[in-house]
Design goal:
There is one protein chain. By secondary structure, the protein is of the alpha+beta class. It folds into four domains: 4-83, no CATH class; 88-132, no CATH class; 133-194 and 342-352, no CATH class; 202-321, Nucleotidyltransferase, domain 5 (2-Layer Sandwich). Helices cover 38% and strands 20% of the residues. The chain has helices at residues 4-19, 57-62, 67-83, 142-153, 158-165, 174-192, 245-255, 268-277, 301-317, 326-337, 341-344; strands at 24-26, 31-35, 42-48, 51-54, 104-112, 115-122, 128-129, 202-212, 215-224, 230-236, 261-263, 287-289. It has a five-stranded mixed beta sheet, with helices on both faces. A four-stranded antiparallel beta sheet has the order 1-2-3-4. The protein starts with a helix and ends in an 8-residue tail after the last helix. Mean pLDDT is 78; it is low at 85-91 and 339-352.
C-alpha cells in the first residue's frame, strides 16, 4: 500500500520530468513516450478508458501512479496553459497613426516573419501603415512574450518560464525573459499612470521585510481597504528612521484624494507622515488608527494578506536584486487588475 508521502514524492518527480526539455514525447492524443530518468531507455504511457497505464516496473508491479504518468499530466497541463494565453494582432484600427484621420481603409496584408498583419491605407495623407501592438523590432513573436509575462507573474521562476517557452518552440535564456519583463512593465506603468482608480476613503499601510541582493530592506505599501487596490509602494533601507511622507504623497497623487481613515501599525514614521500630509488644524478630517489588534475590527489582516502574496512570490525569486527592480511594480499591476499580463499588452501601443 502506497503512502501519501510516497505518492507526493512521485508527483514532485513527475513535475521535474515535465519541466525538462525533451523528456515527454507525444505521438497521439493518448500515446506518450517518457525517457527513463536512469538512462535505461524509454517508457510508454497510455491514456485508456480505465485510466493511465505505464510500462515502467513501478506501475506494473505496484499498480500505482508512477512519476512518468505524473510527468505526462503536468506536461499536458502546462501545454494547455501556454496555448490559452495566445493573442492575435489587432485588426480593428479607427484612425491613421500619422495624421490621426479616421478616413482609412484596409488594404491587403503584410507578411510578417511570425504571421500576417493587416495593412491600412489613409486617404488623407496617402500613407500605408500596420500595427503590431507594441512588439515592433522584437525578435520573438508576441505569443512568446505575453506567455512569458503570464507565466512569470503567475508564480513561475525565470528559468521555469524559459523551459515552458520551449513548448512554443521558443529558445531564449532566462535573462531575455527578464529583459521582456523590464521593458513591458515600464510601458504598462506609463499607461496605468493615466488612470485614476476608484478607491474608498479608508486605506491601510504596512511594511514588509525583504531580501535585496543579500541585504534585508523594507517594502512599504499602501492598500485600499474596500477594493484591496495596491495604491503605492517604495523600498527603504530601514523602517525606524524612514520618512514615510513620500509614499503618502505618492498615494495621494495616484488616487487624487486624501483618505478619511488611514490604518497602520504603531510605527512612528506613519504617524509623522500622517500629521504632515493628511492632517491639518484647519481640516482635521483624516483619522489615523495606529493601534492594531490581532482580532476585532482594528486588525490589519487585509494588509497582511497582501504581504503574504508578496512573500510567497519572493520564495520563488529567492530575493530581489536591486531596489529599482521592475518585478515589484509588475506584481503590483498584476495584483491590482487581476487579469493576465498578456492582455494588458494590447494597450501598449496606445502609449505612443
Amino acid at each position: 500500500m502506497i503512502t501519501t508521502t510516497q505518492l507526493k514524492a512521485r508527483e514532485e518527480r513527475g513535475k521535474t520530468i515535465a519541466y525538462l526539455s525533451g523528456q515527454v514525447k507525444i505521438f497521439e492524443e493518448t500515446v506518450f513516450e517518457v525517457k527513463s530518468q536512469s538512462g535505461n531507455g524509454n517508457y510508454e504511457v497510455l491514456k485508456t478508458s480505465i485510466g493511465w497505464m505505464c510500462s515502467c516496473p513501478d506501475h506494473i508491479y505496484r499498480h500505482v501512479k508512477c512519476k512518468h504518468i505524473f510527468g505526462v499530466e503536468f506536461s499536458l497541463a502546462l501545454k494547455k496553459r501556454v496555448e490559452s494565453t495566445r493573442i492575435t494582432p489587432l485588426n480593428n484600427i479607427s484612425s491613421c497613426m500619422f495624421c490621426g484621420s479616421d478616413n482609412i481603409v484596409k488594404d491587403g496584408v503584410r507578411h510578417n516573419k511570425y504571421g500576417d498583419l493587416q495593412k491600412f491605407y489613409c486617404r488623407n495623407c496617402q500613407k500605408y501603415f500596420s500595427f503590431n501592438v507594441g512588439f515592433e523590432k522584437m525578435k520573438h513573436n508576441p505569443q512568446a512574450i505575453t506567455t512569458a509575462l503570464q507565466l512569470y507573474f503567475s508564480g513561475e521562476s525565470l528559468r521555469n518560464t524559459q523551459k515552458s517557452l520551449r513548448l512554443l518552440g521558443v529558445e531564449v535564456s532566462h535573462k531575455t525573459v527578464y529583459k521582456w519583463i523590464k521593458k513591458y512593465i515600464g510601458l504598462m506603468e506609463k499607461y496605468i499612470e493615466k488612470l485614476k482608480p476608484e478607491v474608498s476613503d479608508t486605506w491601510r499601510a504596512d511594511e514588509l521585510w525583504m531580501k535585496f541582493k543579500g541585504e534585508m530592506k523594507y517594502v512599504f505599501a499602501i492598500m485600499d481597504d474596500e477594493t484591496r487596490y495596491w495604491i503605492a509602494q517604495e523600498v527603504a533601507e530601514t523602517k525606524f528612521k524612514h520618512d514615510a511622507r513620500k509614499i503618502f504623497q505618492l498615494a495621494r497623487k495616484v488616487t487624487g484624494k486624501k483618505p478619511m481613515t488611514i490604518i497602520t501599525d504603531g510605527l512612528r514614521a506613519y504617524h509623522d507622515a500622517y500629521k504632515k500630509e493628511y492632517w491639518t488644524q484647519r481640516n482635521p478630517r483624516t483619522k489615523h488608527i495606529s493601534h492594531i489588534k490581532l482580532r476585532g475590527d482594528m486588525n490589519n489582516n487585509k494588509m497582511e494578506r497582501l504581504n503574504g502574496e508578496i512573500r510567497q512570490r519572493e520564495k520563488t525569486m529567492r530575493g530581489l536584486k536591486i531596489k529599482t527592480t521592475p518585478i515589484l511594480k509588475g506584481y503590483q499591476i498584476y495584483h491590482n487588475y487581476m487579469t493576465y499580463i498578456c492582455l494588458a499588452m494590447r494597450f501598449c501601443y496606445l502609449l505612443g
